[in-house]
C-alpha cells in the first residue's frame, strides 16, 4: 500500500467524517434546478470530494462507495454504474504495474541507478551526483509510479549521505537538496509518458470516453517530454546551489558508488528477461506514433497498428512475457512469480475505475453539462488559451492539498463540461489540467514523494516550500507554453 493510502492526520480524518454527510444532505435537500438523477449524483459527488480531499477513508474505498450508492439511490442501473471498471485503460494500469513489479523484484532499478551514478566524472563532484541522481529518478518515474521511484531512490540517497557524514563532509543543505531532487524529479518524470503517473491515464480516459479524442502514446510523449526536460532543468539548477564545493567529498562519494556497483554482481537471467519484456512493450507503445510521424496518420500501417496493438493490449502481452520467459527451466520458474505480481498497487486501479465511473455518470445524467453552463456564466472564460491556463492553475492548486489522482478525477471532467458549454474544444484544456494535477511540489502533504523525503528529517519545510513554489509557478507556465505551441501540431486540434 502506498503512503498516499496510509491516511491523513486524525483531525483531517475527523473533519472528513463530519463534513461528508453534511455536504451530502445539504446538496440532496437544496432546491437545485436539475433532473432527479443529476441532483442525487451531485449529492453523492459532494460527499465523495470531501472524503477524497480529507482522505478520511482510503481513496479507492471512497470511489467504490460512491459508485455503489448510485444504484440504490436510483441514479443508474448497476450495469451502467460499474461498466467503466472494465475500461481498457484499467488493463493498461495492470500490465504496466506488473512490468514495474518485475523491475523491482529483480533489482533492475538499483542497477540502472548506480550505473548512471557511476559514470566517469559523476561521483567525483557532489553537484554532478545530484544531477545524475535527479536524472535517474526522472527517467525511472517515466515508466514506474512516482512514489515507488522515490521509495527506491531514497535508500540510495541516504546511503550516499551517510558516507559523507562518516567522513565529516556532510552538510544539511546538500542532504536536503539531494533528497528533494529525487522527490521533485520523480514528479516531473511522471509527466513524460502516459503510464508515468495515474493522473495521465485518468485524463486520457476522460478525453477518450467523453470527447472521442484518443491521444496516442507517442503523441503524449511529444507533449510530455519537453515539459519534463524543462522542469528537470529547473529542478537541478535550483538545487545545485546548495551543493558543497568539490573538496574531498567527491572521492568519498565515488568510492561508495563503486562499492555498491560491485555488490550488485553480474546480470541475472531474471534481469535480462525483464529488460526484454519491458523493451518490447515500450517499442510497441511508441511504434504507431513513429509510423504516423513518418507516413502520416492516414497510412494503412498506422491504422493497423492502432487497431491491432493498442496500448492496453501491448501492456498485457508484455506483462504476459514475464510469466513465459523462464529463469530456471528445470524447476519451471519464470521471470515474475504470481506471488510478486499480485503486489501491484491495486488501489490506484480501483480509484481510477471509480473516478471514471463517477465522471461518466456525471455526463450521462446531465450534471456535468449543468455545471459547465453555470461555470461558464460565473467565470466568463471564452477562449481556449484562457481555459487552458485556468484549468492548469486550478489543478495545480488543488493538487497541493489533495492527491494527484483525486485532483485529476475532480478537475478534468469539469474542464471538459466547461469547454463544451463555452463552445471550446476541450482537448488542450483537459491535457493542461491533467498535467497540472501532477505539479504539487509545495508541501509534504502535496504528494507521497514529498512526504517520503520529508519524513527522513533531513529536509526542512522551508527548503521544500522555497524550491517548491518556484517549480509550481514554472510548471504552470511551461505546461501552458508547451500545450499551446505543440498541442495543435501534435493532435491536430
Number of strands: 2
**Structural classification:** mainly alpha
Give me the number of helical elements. 23
Low-confidence stretches: 1-6
Tell me the overall shape: globular
Biggest β-sheet: strands ordered side by side in the sheet: 1-2
What's the helix-strand series? Answer: HHHHHHHHHHHHHHHEEHHHHHHHH
- Report helical residue fraction: over 70%
Radius of gyration from the alpha-carbon trace, in angstroms = 23 Å
Report the major sheet. 2 strands, antiparallel
Q: What is the residue-averaged pLDDT? A: 86
Distance between the termini: 39 Å
Beta content? under 5%
Protein described:
There is one protein chain. This protein has helices at residues 10-29, 36-54, 59-69, 78-82, 88-105, 108-117, 126-141, 146-166, 172-189, 198-211, 217-240, 249-264, 269-295, 300-308, 311-321, 338-341, 346-365, 367-379, 384-399, 404-422, 427-436, 448-454, 461-491; strands at residues 326-328, 333-334. It has 493 residues and is mostly helical. It has a domain at 1-75. It has a two-stranded antiparallel ribbon. A hairpin with a 4-residue loop joins strand 1 and strand 2 (333-334). Helix 5 (88-105) packs parallel to helix 15 (311-321). The longest helix has 31 residues, at 461-491. The radius of gyration is 23 Å and the shape is globular.
Amino acid at each position: 500500500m502506498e503512503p498516499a493510502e496510509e491516511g491523513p492526520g486524525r483531525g483531517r480524518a475527523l473533519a472528513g467524517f463530519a463534513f461528508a454527510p453534511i455536504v451530502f444532505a445539504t446538496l440532496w435537500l437544496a432546491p437545485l434546478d436539475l433532473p432527479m438523477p443529476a441532483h442525487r449524483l451531485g449529492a453523492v459527488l459532494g460527499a465523495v470530494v470531501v472524503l477524497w480531499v480529507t482522505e478520511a477513508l482510503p481513496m479507492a474505498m471512497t470511489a467504490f462507495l460512491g459508485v455503489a450508492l448510485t444504484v440504490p439511490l436510483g441514479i443508474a442501473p448497476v450495469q451502467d454504474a460499474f461498466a467503466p471498471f472494465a475500461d481498457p485503460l484499467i488493463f493498461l494500469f495492470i500490465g504496466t504495474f506488473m512490468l514495474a513489479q518485475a523491475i523491482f523484484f529483480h533489482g533492475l532499478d538499483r542497477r540502472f541507478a548506480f550505473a548512471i551514478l557511476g559514470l566517469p566524472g559523476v561521483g567525483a563532484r557532489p553537484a554532478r551526483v545530484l544531477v545524475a541522481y535527479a536524472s535517474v529518478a526522472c527517467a525511472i518515474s517515466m515508466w514506474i509510479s512516482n512514489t515507488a521511484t522515490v521509495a527506491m531512490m531514497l535508500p540510495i540517497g541516504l546511503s550516499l549521505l551517510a558516507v559523507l557524514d562518516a567522513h565529516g563532509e556532510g552538510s544539511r543543505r546538500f542532504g536536503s537538496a539531494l533528497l528533494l531532487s529525487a522527490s521533485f524529479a520523480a514528479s516531473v518524470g511522471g509527466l513524460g509518458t502516459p503510464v508515468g503517473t495515474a493522473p495521465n491515464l485518468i485524463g486520457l480516459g476522460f478525453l477518450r470516453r467523453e470527447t472521442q479524442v484518443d491521444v496516442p502514446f507517442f503523441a503524449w510523449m511529444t507533449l510530455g517530454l519537453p515539459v519534463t526536460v524543462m522542469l528537470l532543468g529547473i529542478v537541478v539548477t535550483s538545487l545545485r546551489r546548495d551543493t558543497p564545493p568539490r573538496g574531498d567529498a567527491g572521492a568519498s562519494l565515488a568510492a561508495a558508488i563503486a562499492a555498491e556497483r560491485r555488490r550488485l554482481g553480474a546480470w541475472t537471467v531474471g534481469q535480462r528477461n525483464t529488460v526484454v519484456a519491458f523493451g518490447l512493450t515500450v517499442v510497441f507503445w511508441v511504434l504507431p506514433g513513429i509510423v504516423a510521424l513518418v507516413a502520416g496518420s492516414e497510412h494503412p500501417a498506422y491504422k493497423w497498428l492502432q487497431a491491432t496493438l493498442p496500448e492496453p493490449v501491448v501492456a498485457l502481452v508484455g506483462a504476459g512475457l514475464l510469466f513465459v520467459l523462464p529463469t530456471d527451466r528445470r524447476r519451471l520458474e519464470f521471470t515474475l512469480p504470481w506471488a510478486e505480481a499480485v503486489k501491484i498497487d491495486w488501489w490506484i486501479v480501483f480509484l481510477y475505475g471509480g473516478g471514471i465511473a463517477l465522471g461518466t455518470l456525471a455526463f450521462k445524467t446531465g450534471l456535468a453539462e449543468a455545471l459547465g453552463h453555470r461555470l461558464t456564466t460565473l467565470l466568463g472564460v471564452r477562449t481556449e488559451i484562457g481555459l487552458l491556463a485556468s484549468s492548469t492553475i486550478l489543478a495545480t492548486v488543488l493538487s497541493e492539498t489533495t492527491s494527484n489522482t483525486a485532483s485529476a478525477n475532480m478537475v478534468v471532467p469539469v474542464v471538459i463540461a466547461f469547454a463544451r458549454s463555452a463552445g471550446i474544444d476541450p482537448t488542450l484544456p483537459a491535457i493542461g489540467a491533467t498535467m497540472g494535477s501532477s505539479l504539487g511540489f509545495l508541501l509534504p502533504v502535496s504528494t507521497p514523494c514529498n512526504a517520503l523525503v520529508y519524513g527522513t528529517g533531513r529536509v526542512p519545510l522551508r527548503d521544500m516550500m522555497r524550491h517548491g513554489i518556484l517549480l509550481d509557478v514554472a510548471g504552470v507556465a511551461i505546461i501552458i507554453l508547451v500545450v499551446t505551441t505543440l498541442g495543435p501540431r501534435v493532435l491536430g486540434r
